[in-house]
Write a structure and sequence with these properties.
The protein has a domain at 30-168: Rossmann fold. Helix content is 65%, strand content 10%. It starts with a helix and ends with a helix. The protein has 254 residues and is α/β, with parallel strands linked by helices.
């Protein structure tokens, strides 16, 4: 097995490990919050949080608001449901979203998923009814950082909020690392493909093709993957076919 193939295999293993760890973190949060808060994971933030609260029950929302204010947090906006959640977050820029309802419905799941894709931030879901495992997993996949069964209890607000923040930051860090690993692997694939095209075009070996790519990247102050993509666009069989079609069309017009 060549060193490059070995590195690629290790990278894919790294991606799988990271993805599994990310899922493990999310599921641990779900299970932990449904039963108890994992105190060892708590990292207390000294700064108060600006919170967007979603709760259609005004009396229940008032209790949540008071419990948060006692801990120094500010509810900057309250909404009856998750409709337009991403736009509301873009406008109000909260540090955290707290949703208090019986169970996550389909619209809420879709809105949380959209928010998680475009403007991720900690989402704490207080469920006032016990959901089955599929319901909890759907909420986790939609971006919920902490899923808490049996609603809000004032004496647990601090640990729940701090744990949710800590877990969100850990998840984001791992997601960034996963994205970087995927990007590096995709870059290597581009370089390998470009090397093959250069070898075929110039009749040289792989070392020479690599040196040509590296030299071009240094001359243009670009990453090798960017130069490789340009080479592929110019030398790939598809590009050659498009060039020939354009040339044939020009000749017919002439």
């Amino acid at each position: 097995m060549t060193p490059s193939k070995c590195r690629n295999r290790l990278n894919w293993r790294h991606i799988i490990r990271l993805a599994g760890y990310l899922l493990g973190i999310r599921l641990e949060i779900t299970a932990g919050m449904a039963v108890k808060v994992n105190e060892e994971a708590v990292m207390v933030s000294p700064d108060p949080l600006r919170i967007l609260l979603i709760d259609k029950d005004t009396d229940r929302a008032a209790l949540v608001r008071n419990a948060l204010q006692l801990e120094g947090h500010e509810v900057i906006s309250q909404r009856p449901d998750a409709t337009g959640l991403t736009a509301a977050v873009a406008r109000d820029e909260p540090d955290m979203v707290i949703i208090d309802m019986d169970l996550p419905d389909r619209d809420t799941l879709e809105n949380m998923s959209t928010l998680n894709a475009h403007a991720p931030r900690p989402i704490v879901f207080f469920a006032n009814e016990s959901g089955d495992r599929s319901t909890i997993q759907a909420a986790v996949r939609a971006g919920v950082t902490a899923y808490v069964v049996d609603g809000l209890h004032p004496d647990r607000v601090r640990s729940i909020i701090d744990t949710a923040v800590a877990r969100f930051e850990a998840f984001q860090s791992l997601r960034d690392e996963l994205a970087e690993t995927r990007s590096a692997l995709e870059g290597r694939k581009l370089i390998e493909r470009a090397k093959g095209l250069i070898c075929k075009r110039e009749g040289c070996d792989e070392d020479t093709a690599f040196k040509l790519l590296r030299s071009a990247a240094m001359d243009q102050s670009e990453r090798m993957a960017v130069i490789a993509k340009q080479v592929i666009d110019q030398l790939s069989p598809q590009a050659d076919r498009q060039c020939r079609r354009a040339t044939d069309g020009y000749r017919r017009v002439s």
